[in-house]
Amino acid sequence: MENLFSFRYWFDLTPVRLSSAFEVGFFVLFTLMIMAGLAFRIVNKNRQDKFERIVLERATVLSLTTGSLGLLWLFLSFEEISIFGARFWFLFLVLLFVGLIVRVYRYKRFQVPQLRLLEQSKAEANKYLPRRR
């Protein structure tokens, strides 16, 4: 366990073979992420709300990106390619996933209500403006 928190463990470039349980687990995880991204894309087609569509587009990009990069990393570590199959790429992938999740959450939680208010105020102001007939 103390190896897990050492700098040398994560940035060692010598290829280390994953156990078959980890290989299958990571394969299932990354495949499920890709499938979730495709499901988000299908659900997104039926949405009428503009802001929900944007949130689902961002979730689609998040799932497809991390799933694809994860499968690429898994393949390269399975083939024991030293620099591209290194452990720090998995650490980078986890940090990327967490960062994108936080970004989507912040957009949904904080920016969408502000954008809705702005859209409503514009609609109220446009109600009184003259229009062509």
Descriptive notes:
This protein is an all-alpha fold. The chain contains four helices and no strands. Helix 3 (50-78) packs antiparallel against helix 4 (87-126).
Number of helices: 4
Main pleated sheet: none
- Count of domains: 1
- Could you tell me the strand content as a percent range? under 5%
Low-pLDDT stretches: none
Give me the strand/helix succession.
HHHH
Overall shape: elongated
Mean pLDDT: 89
Global structural class:
mainly alpha
How many E strands?
0
Radius of gyration: 21 Å
Defining key terms:
mainly alpha, 133 residues, 74% helix
Fold topology:
Blueprint (H helix, E strand, L loop, with lengths): L6 H4 L9 H25 L5 H29 L8 H40 L7
Quickly describe the structure.
By secondary structure, the chain is mainly alpha-helical.
